Amino acid sequence: MPKEVTKYQCNFCTKSWVSKYRANEHENKCYRNPASKSCSTCGYRTDNYCNLKFEDVFVQGSPVKDCKDWTEEVFDYAEW
């Protein structure tokens, strides 16, 4: 009979770990965590493009983090 195991899942993405420590470590830097201020959660993002800086949001395959221009507000670019 298979053995039951406990896994810990990130609150912001679908990744999970057996180790609670590893899950917490990931969650603190997860690109989908608004606290990381990554392009993944920014209001200026449309698909994979930053509408403020007019550039791709990925650098070497990873989203930019700790952006000084990051905002929670979502913009309607049709009004610009």
Structure, explained:
By secondary structure, the chain is of the alpha+beta class. It has a domain at 36-74. It has 1 helix and 7 strands, in the order ββαβββββ. The strands form 3 sheets. Strands 3-4-5 form a 3-stranded antiparallel sheet, with no helix packed on it. It has a two-stranded antiparallel sheet with strand order 1-2. The protein has a two-stranded antiparallel ribbon with strand order 6-7. The longest helix is centred in the first third of the chain and has 10 residues, at 20-29. The mean pLDDT is 85.
Outline:
This protein is of the alpha+beta class and 80 residues long. The chain is built from 1 helix and 7 strands, in the order ββαβββββ.
Order of helices and strands: EEHEEEEE
Number of E-type strands: 7
Extract low-pLDDT stretches.
Answer: none
Helical proportion, percent range: 10-25%
Strand order, biggest sheet? 3-4-5
Helices and strands, with pairings:
Elements lengths: L7 E2 L6 E2 L2 H10 L15 E2 L2 E2 L4 E2 L1 E2 L2 E2 L17
Antiparallel strand pairs: 1-2, 3-4, 4-5, 6-7
Q: Which key terms come to mind for this protein?
A:
alpha+beta, elongated, 12% helix, three-stranded antiparallel sheet, 80 residues, 7 strands
